[in-house]
Amino acid sequence: MRGRRRRGAGCLTVLAVLAVIVVIVILLWYMLAGCSHVPVPTPPGTTKKPTSQSASCPDVQLLAIPGTWESSSNDDPHNPTANPASLMLNVTKPVQQQFAGSRLDVYTVPYVAQFSNPIAFPPDGQASYNVSRSEGTSRAVAELTTMYQKCPLTTYVIAGFSQGAVIAGDIAADIGADKGPVPADQVLGVMLIADGRREPGPGQAIEVGPVPTGVGAEVTLKGLSVPGISMTGARAGFGKVADRTYTICAKGDLICDAPNQALTPANMIPSALTLVRAAGNPIHSLYNSFVVDASERTTATQWTAGWAEGLVKGAPYPKHS
Predict the structure, then answer these.
(1) How buried is residue 69: exposed, middle or buried, by Cβ count under 10 Å (0-12/13-18/19+)?
(2) Integer Cα distance of 249 and 292 in angstroms
(3) Per-residue pLDDT averaged across 28-49, rounded?
(4) How confident is the model over 186-198, as a mean pLDDT?
(5) Rounded distance, CA 73 to CA 79, Å?
(6) Which of 32, 44, 61, 65 is the most exposed place for a label (fewest CB within 10 A)?
(7) Does some domain include residue 105?
(8) Angle of helix 300-314 relative to helix 89-96, nearest 10 degrees?
């Protein structure tokens, strides 16, 4: 009997130790993966705008935010080379070629742009979605804040793809609610390609091209919380910039067209893995050839470039001093 008790006590001790180890591993996992710390921008003041701005200021700034695996933290925002195949280059390069630097400044937000597998063992060495998204938001808000402070009459075009679309959309929603880094009336337009928070409806982005029946993965997965991945649900809307915010989503792209049966918060780990794989699926990577206007055979990137070019051509010409 004593031997059995000792063996039973020994088993309980081993199980207790294993339980403690599991708790420690989970805690470390959360700390290493990072929580979502999306910065809150300081809204611009209500002081009267000047009648002119510095001669070094561009009339318009096109702020482009690349998608997952299409940027890096140390990339050159005015000559991005981190990923020569970055989708946003198919928008920014054609537009930039049409205008002098005094008319248009193209700023491609440099950020880590990664999405680590939350259960990879050993860890895959990538930044978590939360860390990446927070850095991208911080970098974008900082640039808009700095530009507005230096050049108070400059107007803006904001565009993003994939993870970059989530970031661009979040910033646009803040601007539309008068909580962003620049005034809403100085935003000429916003484009969100494959937005993970896409949700059709009043006050949301205007759909360009075929409209899929699903919604963004973050909407379907609202409440999902695994290490490094926090799904935030749908946005409240785009407020004052809703009438000039657009979105493009290809049918079957789980990032922006997620059916409820594919992703559910109750089935966290498989859903998280599906989300990681969706960031690199073929449909998600083909927006450069995805046709949004069948009559003209215009692709998503061609439409966006033409839209942005039109906005820049029609933008105000502020006085310079």
Answers:
(1) buried
(2) 9
(3) 58
(4) 98
(5) 13
(6) 32
(7) yes
(8) 40
SS3 state of residue 189: strand
Tell me: pLDDT of 279 over 70. Answer: no
In a domain, 95, yes or no: yes
Locate 135 and state its tokens: 């850095």
Which pLDDT score, from 0 to 100, does residue 227 have?
72
Q: Among 191, 160, 197, which residue's Cα sits nearest to residue 71?
A: 160
Using alpha carbons, list the distances in angstroms from residue 57 to 87, 157, 246: 27, 15, 27
Would you say residue 25 lies in a domain? no
Number of domains in the chain: 1
Point out the catalytic residue in the list 86, 116, 162, 271.
Answer: 162
Q: Catalytic residue among 59, 75, 105, 253, which?
A: 253
Least confident of 30-34, 182-186, 306-310, 313-317: 30-34
- Domain assignment present for 36: no
For residue 275, what pLDDT is reported?
Answer: 60
How far is Cα 250 from Cα 252, in angstroms, rounded to an integer? 6
pLDDT for the residue numbered 49: 87
As a whole number of angstroms, the distance between CA 241 and CA 252 comes to: 28
Q: What is the CA radius of gyration of the chain?
A: 22
Q: Which residue did the predictor score with more confidence, 48 or 255?
A: 255
Residue 228 belongs to domain with CATH number? 3.40.50.1820
The answer to whether the CB of 290 falls within 8 A of the CB of 35 is: no
- Tens digit of each residue's pLDDT (9 = 90 or more) over 164-177: 999 999 999 999 99
Known catalytic residue at 75? no
What domain range includes position 269? 57-320
The whole-angstrom separation of Cα 223 and Cα 196 is 14
